[in-house]
Amino acid sequence: MTVVELDERLAALRGAAAETAGELRAHASALDADPYGMKPHLDVAAFDLIRRCTTPERFGDPLRIGRFGYAAGSSLDTLVWTLELAYGDAGMVLAAPGPSLPGILVDQLGDEAQQEYFHRAVAGGPVWTFFAVTEPDRGSDAGAMESALQRETPELYRLHGTKKYIGNGARGAIGVVFARTGSGPLSIRAALVEAAAPGFHGQALETVGLRGAALGEIRLTGVPVPAERLLARHLPPTRRGLWGAVRVFNTVRPQVAALAVGTGLACADLVRTERPNAPGLEAVAARLEACRHLVYEAGAALDRDRDDGRLSSAAKIAAVAAAREAGRWAVRSLGPAALVEHPLLEKWTRDICAFEFMEGTSDIQRLHLARSLVRGRGQGGGRP
Ligand SMILES: Cc1cc2nc3c(=O)[nH]c(=O)nc-3n(C[C@H](O)[C@H](O)[C@H](O)COP(=O)(O)OP(=O)(O)OC[C@H]3O[C@@H](n4cnc5c(N)ncnc54)[C@H](O)[C@@H]3O)c2cc1C
Q: What is the pTM of this model?
């Protein structure tokens, strides 16, 4: 494995993101208290950066810094800004309106008309989006999902089922829902769905960590889905539903690792400020910095091969463990009253617990790594 050194272009992106991170932190507690009261937060500079870095060039206005451009699509670019912004606040990063996960899927699996439909809807923003895979009791084993796309006519399907723990589940206006048209693994498809459709009911879930993600439950009772809204119609069956989901998980998993590293570094730096000689500080910070490099390397690997999720899995396992250690160590280092005296530390320790579950738990990542070693090639895979 090589160490990724940020070149001038990436260093400029890192600097720009770091500049806006402080503003995110100023909004973090208010968002945590009320994840649905988004109005006071909409003008933060980081939301503009995220929107411009995640919207494809033909639908948006890509970020430019001096002579450098940052069109959507590079994993390494995304990880560089995600980590810096998470140092400000990961909850705020996840609360940003924009294309988000479904945007990645639509760009990979959507035809021209579907991409246009989705990105135009999001561009009318602020619009939040959802990516609905998980079902009650079927989280890690997403391939066992039961939500169904029933064909009513050749041109119309009806969507039935329940999705749970979905980011923006009750806040999103448009997104993708995964469901099966039959019983086999290739029958799982991704459908573009609007929350305003009849039969769609999103309900907020009360959560403890990463409340900015606004997790919700989505109940689908006969939601009409025109056949033209099924993604990947132009691709062979093996390149449709779960294949697309796996590619999105590969792409997003190191982003969760970046969120964890940023949050861990925030904990470490709080101790550095409050108790500069705290035992263990340098070791905790060094472990997080090592994870930063692993995250960057995972991004560079994905930019070379979208189907190779091995480093994504490794980065997520390492980063979540390092962030968990950093949070616990910070609380121990600052003493028994730390969680009361430092409300953001209290929030970060809650947020860190949630990273474990996003885009597959550490157990599932270990299974992916073991399988790819046995197969002898880079099939990091996703949750399914
Ligand atoms: C902040 C946050 C945001 C999320 N956003 C989304 C979203 O936008 N869209 C979406 O679809 N989902 C989302 N999720 C859900 C997330 O993907 C699931 O929580 C995750 O897949 C785990 O599923 P589960 O919670 O049902 O846990 P389970 O699958 O029930 O796992 C429980 C425990 O069992 C272990 N386990 C399970 N299977 C195995 C196995 N085969 N071998 C060994 N151990 C195993 C796990 O490691 C875990 O420790 C989100 C979750 C969180 C916390």
A: 0.95
